[in-house]
Amino acid sequence: MSTDKEIDFLWRFIRRSVDRILICLDGLDETDLNWRPLDNANSLYVLATHTIGNVEANILGVLCLQNIHRQRENEFKAHGSSSEPIQKRWREVQESISSHLAKLSSNDLDKEYTHPRRGRITGHELLITIARHIAEHVGHAELTRDLLFSVRGRALPEKEF
Predict the structure, then answer these.
(1) Which member of 10, 105, 112, 120 has the lowest number of beta carbons within 10 Å of its beta carbon?
(2) What is the band of 157 on the pLDDT scale with cuts at 50, 70, 90?
(3) How far apart are CA 75 and CA 46, in angstroms?
(4) What span, in angstroms and rounded, lies between the C-alpha atoms of 56 and 63?
(5) Residue 72 CB: number of other CB atoms within 10 A?
(6) Which domains does the chain have, with CATH numbers?
(7) pLDDT value at 1 more than 60
(8) How many angstroms separate the CA atoms of 145 and 157, rounded?
(9) SS (H, E, C) the chain
(10) Which of 32, 31, 54, 40 has its CA nearest to residue 145?
(11) Which of 139, 157, 137 is nearest to 28 (CA)?
(12) CB proximity list for 75: less than 8 A, separation 6 or greater
């Protein structure tokens, strides 16, 4: 945990949002994990892979200045046979991020960083942008899961709001 309340708050929100995406994968087999509602839409496995890649690259790579090699295009080609590898990856990424964020302060959020697609951005802006981006994918994943369950004739899981 960081000594900065804003960092802690935003990191908790980001973690919770990624967790909500991963909950959508619970109990799914390979066919369901990789199901796409449209040919050009993303599967639940792709959404989870992309979201974790985004969090890792932005928090560790940009904010914490770690050397992260991301292949964003490959995230959209991801295919999984079970949810365990992506769950494990998220646990590892969380541990690394938590460790690095613990070293940051509000001064680090005031600084500007160079983002590969957004240009110059403060740490505050970066964390808020990450949180917003993931929130969009939460809705996307939950809708994809609901469509999958509807197509398969399954009862929709209860929502936690």
Answers:
(1) 120
(2) confident
(3) 6
(4) 10
(5) 12
(6) 5-152 (1.20.120.450)
(7) no
(8) 9
(9) CCCCHHHHHHHHHHHHHHHHHHHCCCCCCHHHHCCCCCCCCCCHHHHHHHHHHHHHHHHHHHHCCCCCCCCHHHHCCCCCCCCHHHHHHHHHHHHHHHHHHCCCCHHHHHCEEEECCCEEEEHHHHHHHHHHHHHHHHHHHHHHHHHHHHHHCCCCCCCCC
(10) 32
(11) 157
(12) 46, 49, 50, 53
Dig out the tokens for 72 from the structure. Answer: 């964003």
**CA 104 – CA 26 distance, rounded (Å):** 33
Amino acid 32 reads: D
Please give the pLDDT value at position 116.
87
Residue whose entry in the numeric block shows the structure tokens 């890792």: 56
